[in-house]
Amino acid sequence: MAHAIEAPASTTAEGPTSHTQNQTLRLSAYQLRMLHGAITPNRVRMLRGMAHLEAWDVRRQLIRIFGFGGYSTETLSLDLTSERETKQGERSRWTVVYRAQVRLTILDTAGREITHWDDAAAGDSVNQPSLGDAHDMAMKTALSQALKRCATNLGDQFGLSLYNNGSKDAVVKYSAAHPPEEWWKQDAPQPPEPDDPPVQPEPQPAATTEDAEPTRAQQPAPQHARRAEAPPKVTLAEFKDKVTRVWNNLDGTRQNLLEAEKAGLADEVVPVGDEGTPTRLRELLENRIAELEAEKRGQRRAA
């Protein structure tokens, strides 16, 4: 659970009151205007049927509202909780889990702390060919998730409304500490706030050369023979049909991920879910592999 710590009222009042008339506003009218607004739908992604924000977008919004030096993050702890190796023939696949605890501190324009929150999260990286990449991705995921949980204490601009069944409508709307007359008449700046395109996920590392299928050591075949042996190029539509056919098969989905990498289709974007959320094929298959592995573990425990 997030933990907020604030300085005494005499140093943190964010608007003039009867006993703080000589204090500078800690949050500007425009900052309050932005914080009270509903989240822009283009900032929300759907992943496995759940609405969520990308960590890079949360950082972008922190910079937009509080400034480049207007917030700070601190890693309070980062612990490895699990590292598992799975053999696939002669090759290894790695699944790694980390737990992170992070502090998000919000500053005013003079660099004074307004408040901070601590929160924690676990992050994993599933079925990776590189142990280094598996650790890196799991650490990054845990840290990003913990930061996003801290930021929800800032309200709708940081995904609080998404906990209300994925709603993008504002749920805060009003704060007695910041009555509307402080901010609601504030005009938008010139130029206006940017109209951002839909957010995209961060790029994921591709399979390493060590993970590529081994090739036979032989003399190059004649050109006409190489043309005859070359497999036909698979279109994205054909590959999507193949993915659908083995969607509930763990080994088949793993094989599809390898073939997508080899065919150069892993970074292709496909629509996912009822809303057609743009998702890279690699991410879609990796997430499905994780789901099927979790189901398999559950079946073993039940047996």
Automatic annotation (TrEMBL):
Keywords: DNA damage, DNA recombination, DNA repair. Residues 189-204 have a biased composition (Pro residues). Residues 9-21 have a biased composition (Polar residues). The keyword Glycoprotein does not apply. InterPro entries: Rad52_fam, Rad52_Rad59_Rad22, Rad52_Rad59_Rad22_sf. It comes from the Bacteria. PANTHER family: DNA REPAIR AND RECOMBINATION PROTEIN RAD52, RAD59 (PTHR12132), DNA REPAIR PROTEIN RAD52 HOMOLOG (PTHR12132:SF1). Belongs to the RAD52 family. This is DNA repair protein. It comes from Streptomyces hygroscopicus. The lineage of its organism: Bacteria, Bacillati, Actinomycetota, Actinomycetes, Kitasatosporales.
